[in-house]
Specification:
5 helices, 5-stranded mixed β-sheet, about 190 residues, globular, about 30% helix
């Protein structure tokens, strides 16, 4: 069975998250790759690990089919005194009592790949969605179309985050860890 790329698995494990959005190269077979090729086109893709509450029985009934699942995306800019965070909410309508959802947090002023991911979202026509089980085995993949309005939102949030973070850095109070901890406190 095909798995998420190793670098995606490592990044998710390191961050302790079950959903991420990362720059990747999608090959002609629709597989996500993280190694650069000379003329490769990079794009942001969402990798989503289903929760344990989705049973093996449900997995077997949901994923043999190739139909597309409705996906809701919601983006928000969170302004903190120590920096700016872009939040991307993802909910996948699998037709279950409780549909899986998750948040991707982008600290664009601190982590270059976060900046690059949002920058790509502001340009690309669609987002690759890769859904996996708890072992990061690929169960399903599909494309989520992005309209001009969606791309415009990502572009304006990225510009605002960069502008705010530059001003905060000038005051000497930029602290990305404090921003992240305010949204995702350590347990």
């Amino acid at each position: 069975m095909q798995k998420f790329p190793d670098a995606v698995i490592r990044a998710m494990h390191h961050a302790g998250t079950t959903v991420t959005c990362m720059p990747v190269v999608i090959d002609s077979n629709g597989q996500a790759l993280l190694d650069s090729q000379d003329e490769a086109v990079w794009e942001s893709a969402i990798f989503f690990v289903l929760p344990l509450s989705v049973t093996n029985r449900q997995l077997k009934s949901l994923f043999p089919s190739q139909h597309l699942f409705p996906v809701s995306l919601e983006a928000d800019l969170l302004e903190h005194e120590s920096g700016t965070l872009i939040e991307l909410g993802v909910e996948i309508d699998l037709g279950l009592k409780q549909n899986p959802s998750g948040l991707v947090l982008f600290l664009t002023g601190h982590i270059p790949s976060h900046y690059e991911a949002v920058q790509l979202l502001a340009k690309q026509q669609s987002i690759g969605l890769f859904i996996g089980d708890v072992h990061c085995n690929l169960l399903h993949q599909q494309r989520i179309p992005l309209l001009d309005a969606h791309r415009s939102v990502f572009e304006s949030m990225l510009q605002e985050a960069v502008r705010r973070d530059a001003l905060i850095r000038m005051t000497g109070s930029y602290d990305p860890e404090a921003v992240f901890d305010s949204v995702a406190p350590k347990t």
